[in-house]
Amino acid sequence: MRIFQAERRIVLTGTSDEALFAPELEYYSNHNQYPVTLFGKPIVNLYRNINVQILITRACNFKCKFCIENDGIKTKNDGSYWLGNLVHSTLSQYREQGIMPNVSITGGEPTLLPNRLFNILDIVKSYHGIKNVNVNTNGYDLSVIRSFPGVRINLSRHHWWSGMNRQIFGDAYTRENVKDFSGVTLQCVLMQNYVNSVPMMKEYMDRYIDKGADGFSFRGLTTLDVDKGYQVEKVFSEQNVVDIKVILDTVAKDADFEFVQQKIGDHYIFEIYKYRGKYVRFTYSNFNWLRQIETDERKSGKSFSRATVIHPNAVYSGWTYDLNKLVTK
């Protein structure tokens, strides 16, 4: 990952994704390899502090127009022995090899299943060397998360007005149910007709800072895989995309933002700033580019993994290939 401070920040406007990502891809492929063994099989992680992503469920009470994760399938609100066992086994094997990964718990909406969420958080927090644990949520019920000190809450809100959020979330969202925003990082997808400019981002942050928000994460609509089946989401994303590169170059020149860092990976851009003393992260990723990379890697016999993903039915996979196929061979 190339990391740049203020004096070396790369101007993004007019720069193609390929020009940004290709040099980093070449470096990762040739130098940034971390071989590990999981369930007796060799895996090559491209990041030492690999991210273990745990999907509690794929069900969600909201129906965001750009989301490809909600399959609408109801899941039992149990502790899920098999899911918990796989999480424990994965973290244990990483620890034995000197690795304490970052952990992201997501869905669907994980707080729909509080018993399962509690069980998974209890397992993760028993590994004291894991420093970064976060839960991505729409705020359905934050009580379980708040019962585990140190777990970061990433709360999705795409506007400061309830009516605008309802347009994105669907009719299940009627009004703001979260009253305490302390310790919360607000997540907002930049979209046309919603939050789509630097002045609107400032108003969004000002309003939530006044409510106690601790930080912010903005991202552009993801460039979805051309061969996947989510046509409605793909059309919505194409119609409402905001040029986040232009926004980032504008933010970099704005005196209200204090530049911290720019990071460029093999399919993503991170930029970190401070606004009114709060950390603000911007993210852009091109998953269509990533899938082409992964297709080429498989054809050449490479088995790179960019994340360890544990699915709600205790299926185990990586971003590049299905790890279950390795485990069951």
Radius of gyration: 20 Å
Q: What is the string of SSEs from the N terminus onward?
A: EHEEEHEHEHEHEHEHHEEEHEEEH
Strand content: 15-25%
Strand order of the largest sheet: 1-10-11-12-9-8-7-6-5-4-14-15
The major pleated sheet works out as: 12 strands, mixed
Please state the structural category: alpha/beta
Mean model confidence by pLDDT: 86
What is the overall number of helices? 10
Helix content: 25-40%
Q: How many structural units, i.e. domains?
A: 2
Q: Please state the oligomeric state of the protein chains shown.
A: single chain
First-residue to last-residue Cα separation:
33 Å
The unreliable regions are 319-329
What is the number of beta strands?
15
Question: What general outline do the C-alpha atoms trace?
Answer: globular
Question: Your description of this structure?
Answer:
The protein is an alpha/beta fold. It is about 30% helix and about 25% strand. The strands form two sheets. A twelve-stranded mixed β-sheet has the order 1-10-11-12-9-8-7-6-5-4-14-15. Strand 14 (about 310) and strand 15 form a beta hairpin. The relative contact order is 0.16.
